[in-house]
Amino acid sequence: MSQENVELFQRWIAAVGRRDVDYVVRHSTTDVMFIAARSAIEGPFVGHEGLRRFVAEIATDFEVIAGRYDDVRDLGDDRVLAIGTIHFRGRAGGVDTHVPSAGIAAFREGKLSRWEDFRERNAALKAVGLEE
Fold first, then answer.
1. Under 8 Å between Cβ of 67 and 17
2. Is the dihedral of CA 102, 34, 38, 14 positive or negative?
3. Does 1 score more than 60 pLDDT?
4. pTM given for the model
């Protein structure tokens, strides 16, 4: 199951970048908790309706958004640690930006049930007890 969760995470993140809300919702639990980096200000995106709102907002705000996670580790308890970057290009200014992303994805019954983006690698490592 562990490698399956790593692959599911990669496919799920790619679907967000494609704005494929049907895939995102279909591969998430009904009570999914999606805590994006910006959730510190706006609050988390909860449930399928929250995911639909998140995907609609990024489609409105960004010409390009793509997560690239080169370090994805199975944590062995239906959780995955993912470390990488998110590439953005805003619609308003067209400026390309890359920001760090490091988070923990949790799965239940083969679907994403939680994502929390800590942004910083060390913060995500600390959250799972793997401080370096």
1. yes
2. positive
3. no
4. 0.90
Tokens of 1: 């199951």
For the chain, first and last CA: distance in Å? 27
| E-assigned strand segments in 1-132 | 28-35, 45-46, 62-74, 79-90, 96-108, 111-117
Indicate the domain borders of the chain: 2-127
What CATH class has 2-127? alpha beta
Let me know how many helices (H) and strands (E) the chain has, helices first.
5, 6
Q: How far apart are CA 37 and CA 35, in angstroms?
A: 7
Q: For tokens 């994006």, what's the residue? A: 36
Mean per-residue pLDDT of the chain: 92
